[in-house]
Amino acid sequence: MKFTRFIVNDKVYTGVITDSIIREINGDIFRDWEYTGKTFSKSEVKLLAPLEPNQIIGIGANYVSKVEDLPNELPEIPVFFFKPTSSVIGPEEDIIIPKGVEQVKFESELAVVIGKEAKNVPESNVLDYVFGYTVGNDVTAPQYFHQDGHWTLGKAFDTFTPLGPVIETELDPFNVKVKARLNGVEKQNSPTQLMIIPIRKMISYLTRIMTLKPGDVILTGSPLGAEFVKAGDIIECEIEEIGTLRNPFVAAKESAKIG
Ligand code: MG
C-alpha cells in the first residue's frame, strides 16, 4: 500500500495511491484510518512529503562498493546523527543552496518509517515496528561538518531533507536498489545488501539507546557515488518499488551566512 500526502486548493489531504488514482483517507496512518470515499486524480494534486516526521535520524557512511568489501567486524558505535524536521520538503520542491555554502551534495537513501513505539527491540523483531519505507535525499554541506566529527549542522539547512514520493508498506527492504540520477545521468545504483550496518541491526541498536516512535524516520545511508551539485541541477533519487523523488537545486536569494 502506498500512502501519500498532497495539496489540492491549499488543503492538505492524506491518501492511498494506486496508479493514477488517490483515495482520500481520514485518521492516523499509524493507528486507525478509513477511506472517506473521495478520490482525486494524480494529475490534479501536488504531492507533499508523505509524512511530517516525528524525528529524523541518519547513519553515516553506510555502504561499500561490493560485497567483498563488507567488514567482518561492525563498528562498536555507529555514526548516527539527527536532521531537523524543518529540513523536510516534498517531491518537486526546490532544494535551496544557502549563500556562502560552496559544496552541497545529494545522498539518495532508503528511509525507514517507524510505525510503533520501539524500545529494546531485538534484531529479529525489528521489522514488526516498521510501518513502511520511502526515499530520502540526505542533502549535505560538508563544509559545516565540525572538524571534531559532528555532522549535524552540515545536514540541517532548510530543504536539505526531501522525502517521498510515497510510503510503501509492502517493500522487501533487503531486495531493492537505491539509485540517483543527476541531470538524467545515473550516479548511484546499489542494492541494500551493500549496507555496512544492516537495517535490523541499525534499528535494534537505536532502540537500545532511545525509544523510537511512530513517524520517526531513519535514513539508512547513501550508496557510493554521491556528488557535489550546483544551482540548476536536477536530482532524482529512486527506489523503483517506491518511486522517484525529484527535486531541483536552486541558489538562495537571501544570505544564510552564519555568525
Ligand atoms: Mg546520508
Written account of the structure:
The protein is 4% helix and 40% strand. The chain is mainly beta. The protein has 2 domains: 1-48, Roll (SH3 type barrels), CATH 2.30.30.370; 51-251, Alpha-Beta Complex (Fumarylacetoacetate hydrolase, domain 2). The strands form 3 sheets. Strands 1, 2, 3, 4, 5, 6, 7, 8, 11, 12, 13 and 16 form a 12-stranded mixed beta sheet that branches. Strands 9-19-18-14-15 form a 5-stranded mixed beta sheet, with no helix packed on it. Strands 10-17 form a two-stranded antiparallel ribbon. Strand 1 and strand 2 form a beta hairpin. The protein binds magnesium ion. Magnesium ion binds at residues 58, 107, 109, 138, 219, 221-222.
**Fraction of helical residues:** under 10%
Low-confidence stretches: none
The domain tally reads 2
Number of helices: 1
Indicate the proportion of strand residues: 35-45%
**What sequence of helices (H) and strands (E) makes up the elements?**
EEEEEEEEEEEEEEEHEEEE
Mean pLDDT: 95
Q: Roughly how many Å apart are the termini?
A: 46 Å
Total E-strand runs: 19
* SS-based class: mainly beta
Question: Could you say which small molecules are bound to this protein?
Answer: magnesium ion
In quaternary terms, these chains amount to single chain
The whole-angstrom Rg is: 18 Å
CATH architecture of the largest domain: Alpha-Beta Complex
The top-level CATH class of the largest domain is Alpha Beta
Assign the CATH topology of the largest domain: Fumarylacetoacetate hydrolase, domain 2
The CATH homology group name of the largest domain: Fumarylacetoacetase-like, C-terminal domain
